[in-house]
Every structure is written in C-alpha cells, then in structure tokens.
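pinning this so it doesn't scroll away 📌
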Amino acid sequence: MPVSYKIKDSSAGILFDRLKAYISGSHSLVREFFIRLGNLKTVRILTYYPGTAGILAREFGWSLIPPVAHPDATIRLWQETGCRDFVSRVLGLDPGQVIEGESWTELIRCAPDGELYPMGTIDSDGPWGVHMSLGNEYFYGLDGLEPGAWFKDGHFFVQALFRILNRDDNHSLVHGACIGRNGSGVLMCARGNGGKSTLSVTSLLRGFEFVSDDYLILEKDREGLFASPIYSFITLSPQMYDRMYDDLDRARFLGISSWKGKYVLDISGYGERFREHYPVKALLFPEITPDAAEPSVVPCSAQEKGRTLVQIAHSTTFQMWISGLKGEQRDADFIRKTLGMLTGLPCYRIVLSPDIEANARCLAAFIDKTL
C-alpha cells in the first residue's frame, strides 16, 4: 500500500498555489499550446520540460488552435528529479513516518462532508514522477523519462483529457476507431489486437475519411452523434506495418510502443483526409476470422449489440485505469453516459478475412450502400 496524505479541503488550494509557484519559479517556460477537444472544451498546455515542444506539436497536430482567453482546463508539464522528498520540499507537508522501501505516495483531499477525493500520486522510483490535479488544473512532473520516449508508453495526457471531457454530459473520450465515406462514419469497437487499427488505416490509405484509430471524442447534440480526433498518429503491429509499408509513403516512423510492441507512426502527411465533428451513423464490431474466404458485414442481434456497447465502454475504462474513489469519473457513470449516446445507433459485425485490401473494399461497399 502507498503512503497516503490526507489534506483538509481548506488547505488544498494553498498546496496547489505552492506547487504552481514552484514550477514557474524553478523552471523556464518552453512553450504554450492550446488544443480543442471537440466543439466544447479548450485546454492550455504549459510545458517547462526542455525538448518537448516538437513532440507535443506532433501528438496534438490536429487539435492545435490559436490562444484562447479562458480555457476550460490547464495542464502543466515539467521535469522533476527530486520526487523522493517532493512532499516536504515542494508541498511543505510533514513527511511523517517513513516506510522502508515504499516509493509510492498518494494525496487525498478530505471534503467537509467526510468524502475522500484523490488529488495525485508521487512515484519516487518511477519515470512518471508527479501526477496531481485539482479542479481544472493538471500537473505532470516527469522524472528521468526522455521526451522522445513518451509516445512509446501510450497517448500522453489521455487520462487528464478523459476527466476533462467526461465532466460534460454530451461529450465522451472513448477507446475506438472512426472512419467513413462521404460524411457517413462508423465507430469501430474492439479491444487491442481486434483488427480496428488495421482496418481503419487500410481504409485511410484507400481514400476513406479518417478520425482516429485509437482514441477519439464523441459529441451528442440534437443533430446526432459526432466524432472528433485528438491525436495525429497511429499504431500498427509490425506485421501490418510491413504489409502496408509501400502505401505508407506519407507517414513517418516514430518508434516502437512499449504497449504490445506496436509501431507508432505520424500520419500528418494525410491531413486532407482527417475529419472533425464527423457524423457517426453506425457501430461496427470487427471480428478477425482467419479462415474466412471473403469479408462480410452482417447486422448484429440485440444480444450482440449489447456486447458491442459494453465492450467500447469497458475497453475505455480499462485503458484509463479509473480510480474507484468518489470524485473521480467512476466506471458506472461513464458507462451509463456512453451507452446512452450509442444505444440509438444501428450495429453491425464485419467478418475480417486475411486479405486486408478486401476488407477495406467490403467496408466501402457497406457504407456506400447502407449508410
């Protein structure tokens, strides 16, 4: 179990003011970014970590916007090499009893009603260092992690973006892929290695309109359901990368992800095919069938649709590692909202054959004919 500090509600603001003063007083601002999350949220990113500006610009290429006066949230990033004594040196807390060998510290805010709300964690032995948040402000102090290695451990800031978006009833950040043709999109629901990235990237290379192959923003309004991108890179297994190599002439290889060993590619060269606020007309569940002679798309039964809906919610919550403490976006709240946004969509299952080109042609014919 980690060492826990319980902070009085009245003291939380003072603690975070102390943290902000420390960051701005001890580190030089490298660059300020502003990104848009769908049509509602704007986020300011302040990076004090040398060597990060180019990486962040590539990661959020499709979401970057000009500065705004009143962003909905702020993320601060800095290099913190003193995590071992961070709680006393920076936050001014009594280090209390030292537990030999314990490196994980958590901060918990105690509300007046007695409820407990997590505020952050400090890992003195790990590269991720300090993660803290209060209200609409998020803090990342990285210890010993090279900037070029960020993308290898996943999509950066995704947990903060998840929390920012899911405070609104009409927006969700979900783990899924979205592609389409002529303004009609399909939302593909599948866990890792389920075929969604291969199908979405193959389709992108064949002229489809593209939102994302991994994380995206869903927006619900009176006109329907829409999807928007966050990140401007994709991930592919080494086998699929080799098969698509000749067609990926406008992509840039960034590295190998530590999560399942996938290749990470910058696809900003395909910018004219990216779409935001893109209409989602159907759910699509990819099913890899090695012995399928030809791919096919079939309507899902009510039971199959239920499993598809649950899977996209469960896959997202699994990716986020959501805390069960009150005050975080809990699994049940997120699942209830997301299912409400998706329930009205028709649902189909696409049986994927070993021929990835045939799979993309099958999907194109389905969208053109059905949606």
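📌 and the second one:
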Amino acid sequence: MDASNLESLDRLTNEFSKLPGVGKKTAARYAYFIVTGTKEGAEAFADAILDAKKSIRFCSNCGNFSSGDVCNICKTRGEETICVVKEPKDVSAIEKAHAYKGSYHVLHGTINPLANVAPKDIKIAELLSRISKGQTKEVILATSPDVEGEATAMYIASLIKPHNIKVTRLAQGLAAGTQLEFADEVTIARSLADRRTL
C-alpha cells in the first residue's frame, strides 16, 4: 500500500473508533474487514448507513425512532400509561421484555449539571404537553438508576404530581448504575411489574 492508501485506512479506522465502545484495536479490525472484503460488501454497508440516516427520524409524538411522522407504537397504543425513558434504545429494551403495552416518551438525555444539561435541554416540556391533554393516568419513570437518571426522575415526578396523575418508578430489579439497554428481559419485566409510586 502506498501512503495515500494508508491515509484512507487510517481515516476509516478513525471513523470506526468514534462509535460507542469501540477502541482503536477494534476499529482497526473493522477497517481491515471492510478493506479486505468485496467492493459489493463495502457498498452494501455504506448504503445501509446512508439509508438509515435518510429514512429514520424521531416520532413527533414520543421522540422514538420512526420511519414516518408518528411511530407504530404511538399509532396503535393509547396514552393512558406513558413510560418515560432516556433514549430510543431504551424503548427497544423494554419492548423485548413483552411486559408493557402502553406508550413511551423519550427524553433524549437526562439532567446533568456537570455536562451542562438542564431540564430545558431534554424533552420534559413535550411530556407535560402530552399529559395536559387529560388522557394519561400513569407515568412510569424508567430512566436508569444512576445519579443523573434518579435526579431526572425526581424532577419530572415533582412536575407531574400536581396533575393528579399516578407517578411510578421502575423497581430496583435493576441494579444501581445499570444502563437499561444492557438489562436482560426478565429483569426489565420484573422491574415493570414491581414499579413503585413516587
């Protein structure tokens, strides 16, 4: 390989290393896999990335991933119970447990003063707008049980309680510090079943 080819390989490795949880060695393995594979395979991989980026957006109602303006969950489920999560990947984790049949609200972050993330920087106002329509009877706060997740849950609970809506928190079947996306289906199902009122 000449210097220009090595620069391309370094650039590809660098791009892979930007993915969450991917270190330099893993990024290099991914880059070598792409470079040593077929041109068709590389094109299919690139097309899948571009297609996902073009076609996937956020649901205008709940903030989950969607291929249209409103996601399939919002189209088919009522607003009586809303499960509040940090990220769209948390919706996926809860859905895999097959223990919850309500709708969701994705905050797209948690309150974190150290990272300059204030309540106005996440989708709390949108949640309050949804519950103000009067259909919601319970809000389940399913943020992860870390410091930021707990602080966010307590803050949201304080805003919702005056609306006479039941506010619950996932039970501690989830160990402190556990990220929701990494919890197994049984743990999530137990946490949903044993949720507590705040």
